[in-house]
Amino acid sequence: MRLKTTKNEEKKAVEEERRCVNCGRGIKTLFVQYSPGNIRLMKCDNCKAVADPYIECEFMIILIDLILHKTKAYRHLLYNMLNLDADDTKGVFLKSSFVYFLLDACRISLISNSRDDWDSSGSPLVSIWTCGKVLMDVLLGNFVFISVIVLGTKFLLDLSLDITRCKEIMLAILISSYFKLFLIAMMVWEFPSSVLFIIDVFVLSSNAVALRVVTQLQTAGCLAVCFGAHAAKLFTDRWVSP
C-alpha cells in the first residue's frame, strides 16, 4: 500500500513539474495537441488564466520580456522551458556554470586591460601567471558570491534549503546572468568601461527577479540578497587584484 502511494506521489510530482506563469502554481499540462500545429492552451485551476501564453510566442518576444524583467517570462524560461523541477538538470547546470565562469574571466580580462595591468612582454611564465591570477580571481570571487546567495537566502529570507533547492536557486542565478553574453562583443569591439557597470547592474537586477521567481519571496528581500552577493564579489575582486 505504501509503495502504491509513493508511486502515485511521484507520478503527481512529475505531472506538476510545469508552472503557471501568472501565479506560479504547478499544472499537469500546459496545452493539448489535437494535431500537428493545432493546440489548445490550458487554463490554470488556481488563477483561471491561460497557464503559459508564451508557448505560442516567438523567442524574440520572450527575450524582450526577459530584458524587461517580467516575472511571467522568467517562470516560462526557468520552469516550462528548462524545467528546474526535473531531476535531469545536471547537464544544463554544468554547461551554464562553464559559460558563466568563462564570461566572468572575460570580464576580469576587460577590467585588467582597462587598467593596463597586462604585461605585454610575451614571456610564457608571465602568461601562465596571468592566467592563474584570472582563474584564482574567478573561483574566489564566485565562491564568495555563491556563499552570500545561499546564506542570505537561508537566514535573511528565512527559507529552508536542501541540496535540490540550492541547485535550483544556483541554476536560476546562472541562467539569469545571460546579460554577461554582451561581454563577448566587448572582447571584439571597443566600448567605454562604463558599459561593464551597466552590464553588472542588469545582471544584478535579473538575478533578483530570478531569485524571486524561484523562492516566491518579496522583491526587496531578493534584491538585497543579490546586491550583497554582487558587492561581496566586487570587494573580493578588488582585494585579489588591487
Task: Please summarize what this structure is.
By secondary structure, the protein is mainly alpha-helical.
Distinctive features:
242 residues; mainly alpha; two-stranded antiparallel ribbon; globular
Can you count the helices? Answer: 9
Q: Could you tell me the strand content as a percent range? A: 5-15%
The dominant shape is: globular
> What oligomeric state is this?
single chain
Provide the low-confidence segments as ranges: 1-15
The whole-number mean of residue pLDDT values reads: 82
Q: Strand order, biggest sheet?
A: 1-2
Radius of gyration: 21 Å
Q: What does this 3D model show about the protein?
A:
- This protein has 242 residues and is mainly alpha-helical.
- The chain has 2 domains: 1-81, no CATH class; 88-115 and 122-240, no CATH class.
- Helix content is 65%, strand content 5%.
- The chain is built from 9 helices and 4 strands; from the N terminus they run αββββαααααααα.
- It has helices at 2-15, 59-67, 71-81, 90-115, 124-156, 163-175, 182-188, 194-215, 219-240, and strands spanning 18-19, 26-27, 31-35, 38-41.
- The strands form 2 sheets. The chain has a two-stranded antiparallel ribbon with strand order 1-2. A two-stranded antiparallel ribbon has the order 3-4.
- Helix 4 packs across helix 5 (124-156), helix 4 crosses helix 6 and helix 5 (124-156) runs antiparallel to helix 9 (219-240).
- It is globular, with a radius of gyration of 21 Å.
- Mean pLDDT is 82; it is low at 1-15.
- It comes from Elaeis guineensis var. tenera (Oil palm).
- Its main location: endoplasmic reticulum.
- It holds the Pfam family Arv1.
